[in-house]
Write a structure and sequence with these properties.
Elements lengths: L24 E5 L5 H10 L3 E6 L10 E4 L5 H7 L5 E4 L8 H22 L2 E6 L22 H18 L3 E6 L2 E3 L11 H8 L4 E4 L6 E5 H13 L7 E4 L3 E3 L1 H10 L7 E4 L1 H7 L4 H6 L15 H6 L7 H12 L14
Parallel strand pairs: 1-2, 1-4, 2-3, 4-5, 5-6, 6-10, 7-9, 8-12
Antiparallel strand pairs: 9-11
């Protein structure tokens, strides 16, 4: 059964499909770096879209916004009334162990209740923390062996989804790698601010082994992948999928992004021991310690199952770099000289 668009992957392009009041209602919980873009992408396909967020701030023309506390099951159920698909794109309020352990399970329980109450498919944006350290590429069959609190939260979430699935929940999850590209926020090593800074001659700050291959996800591909999981036939349900990744060393990716702006691509690499030292004084650095294994050695991800299911989805690395640079600075912005050491 197709919930929205014909099979064959989501469409790309500037034109929009007119929204009909009989179109399926897709509800996005969370209006962060992925949620807002997802809502816009869904609307462009002629779907009715509602975004649920704490504030009533608008997202885009034609996208309904509803203010609600999505950790409250009753409010989540009310907000999801009439949904064909519910998307979980929420994050805890802070990148700390305490926030993740307190908020993430509450968000998940509320959205399970919302999806069960409406009979909607629950599409969850996830990451790869649950996999933990392992040798070789991580596939969807790799045992979940997280070794830290934020990873344990994700392991528990995977188990909870599977338990709810046995009780009738229609669910699927997309696990993304570390993000870059349009929509990558300030906590990303290669945020859009960092990409723009490369064009002005500033260095990128990296962690661990900058020459070890790493699985990066391009944010627009993550958005398109969630659209695909929301609109596909029922065979996508009851499992997690590894979303498209680009296996490339962080230093090489920096150099590609810099060269596309006519720059060399400088890097400053923070050693793991320095992150641990900094963690004594910085909450963000302390939280990063848990996932240092992703950066001090190759971090490989097998995305072949998703690419086989949705062969038309995903840009090449060259295309992603070109589009990222085009979006990093306003059109016509002049180049800036690299600041002098003086």
């Amino acid at each position: 059964m197709s919930l929205a668009q014909p099979r064959g992957g989501p469409r790309r392009g500037p034109s929009e499909v007119p929204v009909s009041q009989t179109s399926p209602l897709h509800i996005v919980f969370g209006a962060g770096q992925v949620g807002s873009s997802l809502a816009i992408a869904l609307k462009a396909r002629g779907l009715r879209v509602r975004v649920v967020r704490r504030s009533g701030r608008p997202v885009a023309p034609g996208v309904e916004v509803l203010a609600a506390d999505a950790t409250d099951p009753a409010q989540a159920v009310a907000a999801a009334r009439g949904a064909a698909v519910v998307y979980h794109c929420m994050n805890p309020s802070a990148y700390t162990e305490q926030a993740w352990q307190a908020e993430f399970p509450a968000q998940g329980e509320a959205l399970i209740a919302a999806a069960q109450a409406t009979g909607a498919r629950l599409v969850c944006l996830d990451n790869l923390y649950a996999c933990g350290p392992c040798g070789g590429p991580r596939s969807e069959q790799t045992p979940l062996a997280a070794e830290g609190p934020k990873g344990w939260v994700r392991v528990a979430w995977d188990a909870r989804l599977r338990q709810a699935g046995e009780q009738g929940l229609r669910w699927t999850a997309g696990r993304a790698g570390d993000d870059f590209g349009p929509g990558a926020g300030g906590q990303s090593l290669l945020s859009m601010q960092a990409v723009a800074a490369l064009g002005r001659g500033w260095p990128a700050v990296l962690v661990g082994d900058a020459d070890a291959v790493h699985a990066f996800s391009w944010v627009p591909d993550v958005v398109e992948a969630l659209v695909a999981l929301g609109s596909a036939a029922d065979d996508v349900e009851g499992r997690a999928w590894h979303l498209p990744v680009h296996p490339v060393a962080p230093r090489e990716l920096v150099q590609r992004l810099a060269r596309a702006q006519g720059r060399r691509g400088w890097t400053v690499v923070l050693a793991p021991w320095f992150i641990r030292l900094l963690g004594r004084f910085s909450a963000l650095a302390h939280a990063l310690e848990e996932t240092l294994y992703q950066w001090d050695r190759p971090f490989l991800v097998d995305d072949s199952a998703f690419r086989a299911r949705f062969p038309a989805l995903g840009l090449s690395l060259d295309q992603a770099v070109t589009k990222t640079v085009a979006a990093a600075l306003p059109a016509g912005s002049p180049p800036f000289a690299r600041p002098s050491a003086a």
